[in-house]
Write a structure and sequence with these properties.
Elements (H helix, E strand, L loop, with lengths): L1 E3 L4 H6 L5 E6 L4 H16 L6 E6 L4 H6 L7 E6 L2 E7 L5 H11 L2
């Protein structure tokens, strides 16, 4: 799982070939911390299947998060061609829903 920053986000996510899953989390976000081990496990489980896995700490990239309209956490978003095409927000970001989302975009 690649941790991106506001400086690497464009190159790693927006300019990526194919779909990219981004786990948006924040310092002190309890639901984010609870979800993160599941997302990391999915990143390992589905490695090499055509979906890139990244995470972004929005505490260190507030302007970027706001520009992407990430207003609540956690958010699991799928990017394709530089745009968010699907996302799970707050209560919808359960391990089961995240895995179902991943399965829609893997090769």
């Amino acid at each position: 799982m690649l941790e991106v920053t506001k400086d690497t986000f464009e190159a790693e996510v927006k300019n990526a070939e194919g779909p990219v899953l981004v786990d948006f989390f924040g310092d002190g976000c309890v639901p984010c911390a609870a979800l993160m081990p599941h997302v990391h496990a999915f990143a390992e489980k589905y490695a090499g299947k055509g979906l890139k896995f990244c995470c972004l700490n929005t505490t260190k990239a507030r302007r970027l998060a706001i520009s992407l309209k990430i207003m609540g956490l956690p958010v699991i978003a799928i990017f394709k061609d530089g745009e968010i095409i699907e996302s799970l927000v707050k209560e919808d970001a359960t391990p089961e829903n995240v895995e179902a989302l991943i399965q829609k975009y893997i090769a």
